[in-house]
Design brief:
heterodimer, A: about 475 residues, alpha+beta, seven-stranded antiparallel β-sheet, five-stranded antiparallel β-sheet, globular, B: 13 helices, 19 strands
Chain lengths: ~475, ~425
């Protein structure tokens, strides 16, 4: 540890006490990656604050000493958004786990950032309410991490993302001020801009979320198709009929095979694709729409339909889908998860394109996706023991994103850019777009200390005039500044 | 050696349609010198580059329906009228997405989408509003309860900054977390960050049917339980209140839409008690209670009725000020119209006392419009926790302060009210 870091950790000890500061190299390694484990960096110091004031004190010390810091919730992120800096401080929110208030009268909950997504729903359930965004990792992922990533989930087709359900945030700005952002405030929607900024604009220390009324009726249907094309036709027909299901999920044959191997989900044998459609809402409306969905699936070529009316049957249908990511581990030693988005109408062409890419490179790709909103999660399978396989998988994975961009889509629907996809940002955005986003960054974090190196490829220093970027920045070359 | 062109010459040389401003072009009494009528994002950028070179202040305007909202600009050289940015650029019905230029009116958009059985589920309070103006002013209407507001429906935006930079964020897919969401930032920006040139929205299917359920009660105490109605499994899309006279009766109206709306409307009627059911909205539905002296209060949903009680009490204390009340009671965003001839001291007392009354509920009170005399005395915004961050954002986007100067939320009004009138007749 450098003398500067030793001094900083001594200062943190005075703020947080011995249990709140980690400098032991073995324990530090626990934090070297998030859910995207092939990016690793051991932080210089880990701190475990319990209050916003402690977070602010830590951040002020970082600001004063020019030390980069990274916030981390449960570490389930899939884009390396919480990848630490070896020369920086990792601020872990896992001790900030209080549910401050379940406020039924105002249909909201006030929580600390370390509270898990599911814990909010569990606390609200006795009152007939729940927290709508439901990322697959909801049992462990933290609400602070959800805010950073603007997390979605299978049901965001109807209910939207984290940004549509957060009413207020208390945050610590990168210079250590505690500020409230509130949806009721007039002016720029800074609350909306902060959500999804991946920890680069500060650290949320208190979050007020909207609680939603649990729907009167939930009905889930599993439809088996001979192939992905006919499943895709059913999706288009349902949306075209003016129905907005709570979720429409699709899995292809390889994803089904993996799920069967892992959790024996017992999907209809011979299915080339399965579609899960969930409808919820007032019973009269759901009953009417469900009949339509059944008919549209059959007309599109479904050879078997299963209908779940109770939670146990519904869980059985969802079991295969929810286990899909982990399940591919059963049929492949290693895999990459992608998170591209395309306009829904482009799905058939993009899926055909992925199939063609996979065939050309001799790589298997399992497809699991949120069909309703065109969010693809291709799982690129490879054997890491085989020489060159990892590189080919990377190539296919990257080509899939190019394909998504070429159809007017996005490089990430819900996992975030993080470190993993920052190099793709210039493919999706012009230098002017990225420079403009950088203005927001500079307004919040002029020193570039809050989660540097994420989202943006080689940003300019704040205050630097736009122009052609060539070579090393003079301030960097002279050692006066570091370009994160 | 060539002489550098005058601002008028430079604007004319941009190739964009420019005209001299007339008295009707004034923004809250502040007269611009020129009006520009760009037709493309490229033309907006060309104009903004000229404005930057010539150090001109710029105020963007759409339909002009809310141009007088907020404080008057401290200066306006160029009024950038988006009326000719009126093209719907892309509507892919199968994707439920539309991309349009900022000057498209919400009526024109609705007409174009209806053919495909779709809608932008965003109510505007005044006819003739454009999508750009609706975003910049951050307005919404009754159906915010179900569909959210403009910021929830906006999925992509193209803006032109003060220096002419064209920047885009989001895209045309509903689900997208790549990069910062500039659309959120520009929602509610009141023209102070740049010009909104294009916007992309997610759409919703038009509902199969709609029914409005209304009931009228003598006073606040007689209102049915708002929380029960808003949280009911009948899933109302909107719940609105109207009280045209301070001490008069209140009308509560709910909207249910979708399949089986009639059946749900009947059940809703039972919840509300002595209700009428109809297929048309009440005449006041989604309209402002007044435009000349307009306030907006926002409280958490559970505090709507106490907030209305505070309005009544404060108005009584201010000498029975005849405040008209209307708005989204389940979302707790309520508009208040004061008589335009309210004396400035009375207005000042009312605003400040009501803010104090709302404070225990964590509420806000914004003064959107006010007659000039009253406006000069009123704190329009109250406390805004993020005011410093907003100012920092403004300084980065518009370091020379040329975009709608003086209109930033949270900015202190100029010490002496400044009235600039057109010198030309």
């Amino acid at each position: 540890m450098t003398p500067a870091m030793a001094e900083l950790s001594g200062h943190f000890l005075s703020i947080l006490g011995p249990s709140g500061v980690i400098t032991d190299p073995v324990r530090l390694r626990t934090y070297e990656c998030d859910g995207l484990s092939y990016h690793r960096a051991t932080p210089a110091i880990v701190v475990l604050p319990e209050t916003a004031e402690q977070v602010a004190a830590v951040v002020r010390a970082c600001d004063r000493t020019g030390t980069p810091f990274v916030a981390r919730g449960s570490g389930t992120g899939l884009s390396g958004g919480a990848l630490p800096r070896t020369d920086g401080v990792l601020i872990v929110t896992s001790r900030m786990r209080r549910i401050i208030e379940i406020d039924v009268a105002n249909r909201r909950a006030v929580v600390e950032p370390g509270v898990t997504n599911l814990a909010i729903t569990e606390a609200a359930r006795p009152f007939g309410y729940y927290y709508a965004p439901d990322p697959s990792s909801q049992q462990i992922c933290s609400i602070g991490g959800n805010v950073a990533e603007n997390s979605g989930g299978a049901h965001c087709l109807k209910y939207g993302f984290t940004v549509n359900h957060v009413l207020a945030i208390e945050l610590v700005t990168p210079d250590g001020e505690i500020v409230e952002l509130d949806a009721m405030d007039p002016g720029y929607d800074l609350l909306g801009a902060f959500i999804g900024s991946e920890g680069t604009l500060g650290i949320a220390t208190k979050i007020t979320v909207r609680l939603s009324r649990a729907p009167e009726v939930v009905t889930t249907l599993l439809a088996a198709f001979g192939n992905v094309e006919s499943g895709g036709r059913a999706v288009s027909a349902i949306i075209g009929a003016g129905i907005v299901p709570a979720a429409i999920e699709m899995m292809d044959a390889l994803a089904i095979e993996a799920a069967e191997a892992a959790v024996r989900c017992d999907y209809p044998p011979g299915a080339g694709a399965v579609l899960i459609v969930e409808l919820d809402g007032p019973s009269a409306e759901v009953a009417h729409q469900f009949a339509q969905v059944e008919r549209l699936c059959q007309e599109s070529g479904a050879f078997e339909l299963r209908i779940a009316d109770d939670p146990a049957e519904r869980a059985a249908i969802w079991k295969g889908r929810k286990s899909a990511f982990a399940a591919v581990g059963r049929i492949s030693p290693a895999y990459l998860v992608q998170d591209g988005v395309v306009p829904r109408t482009a799905l058939p062409r993009v899926l055909a394109g992925i199939e063609e890419l996979a065939a050309r490179h001799g790589i298997r790709v399992a497809n699991v996706f949120h069909a309703g909103d065109g969010n693809l999660h291709p799982l690129v399978l490879f054997d890491d023991a085989e020489e060159g396989a990892g590189e080919r998988a990377e190539l296919v994975s990257s080509a899939i994103l190019d394909l998504c961009i070429s159809y007017g889509g996005s490089i990430t629907g819900e996992h975030g850019v993080g470190v993993d996809k920052s190099r793709y940002m210039p493919k999706m955005f012009t230098p002017e777009d990225l420079d403009t986003m950088q203005l927001v960054r500079c307004a919040f974090d002029p020193k570039g200390l809050s989660n540097p190196g994420k989202i943006f490829p080689t940003p300019r220093l704040c205050g630097e005039a736009p122009g052609v970027r060539k070579g090393v920045h003079p301030l960097v070359a002279s050692g006066e500044a570091e370009l994160f | 050696m060539t002489l550098s062109p005058s601002p008028g010459e430079a604007l004319a040389a941009s190739g964009v349609t420019i005209r001299e401003a007339g008295p009707d072009d004034a923004v809250s009494g502040v007269a611009p010198r020129w009006v520009a009528l760009p037709e493309t994002t490229g033309e907006v950028a060309a104009l903004m580059r000229v404005a930057a070179e010539q150090s001109l202040t710029v105020v963007p305007v759409g339909g002009g329906t809310k141009l007088h909202w907020g404080p008057p600009p401290t200066r306006c050289d160029l009024l950038l009228d988006t009326c000719c940015l009126n093209q719907i650029l892309e509507h892919v019905a199968g994707d439920l997405v539309v991309r349009a230029q900022a000057g498209v009116t919400t009526e024109a958009l609705a007409a174009a989408l209806a053919g495909a059985g779709q809608q932008l589920a965003l109510d505007v309070p005044v006819d003739g509003a454009t999508i750009g103006g609706t975003l910049a002013a951050g307005t919404a209407g009754p159906r915010r309860l179900r569909y959210g507001t403009a910021r929830d429906l906006l999925i992509g935006i193209t803006v032109v900054l003060a220096d002419g930079t064209v920047a885009r964020s989001g895209g045309k897919v509903v689900k997208n977390v790549a990069g910062y969401d500039l659309g959120k930032l520009f929602t509610g920006s009141q023209g102070t960050l740049g010009v909104i040139a294009e916007a992309t929205f997610r759409l919703h299917p038009l509902p199969a049917s709609r029914a409005w359920i209304t009931t009228t009660v003598p006073d606040l105490r007689a209102l049915p339980d708002i929380a029960v109605i808003a949280g009911s499994q009948l899933e109302p899309s909107a719940l609105e209140i109207d009280r045209p006279d301070l001490h008069g009766p209140l009308t509560l109206a709910a909207l249910v839409e979708g399949v089986a709306a009639d059946e749900r409307a009947k059940a809703m009627g039972e919840l509300m008690g002595e209700a009428r059911i109809g297929s048309e909205p009440p005449v006041w539905w989604g309209r402002l209670p007044g435009e000349e002296f307009l306030l907006e209060l926002r409280v958490p949903p559970g505090a709507a009725v106490p907030a209305l009680a505070a309005v009544l009490r404060t108005a009584e204390e201010a000498g029975d000020l005849p405040v008209r009340v209307r708005g989204s009671i389940a979302s707790s965003i309520i508009q208040l119209a004061l008589p335009p001839d309210t004396s400035p001291p009375t207005a000042e007392i009312f605003v400040s006392a009501l803010r104090s009354g709302l404070a225990p509920h964590g509420g806000r009170l914004v003064v959107w419009t006010a007659p000039p005399e009253a406006a000069s005395r009123l704190d329009r915004w109250g406390h805004v926790g993020a005011a410093t961050l907003m100012r920092r954002v403004k300084e980065r986007f518009d370091p020379e302060g040329r975009m709608s100067p003086g209109r930033l939320v949270g900015e202190a009004p100029p010490a002496a009210p400044r009235r600039v009138r057109s010198e030309r007749s």
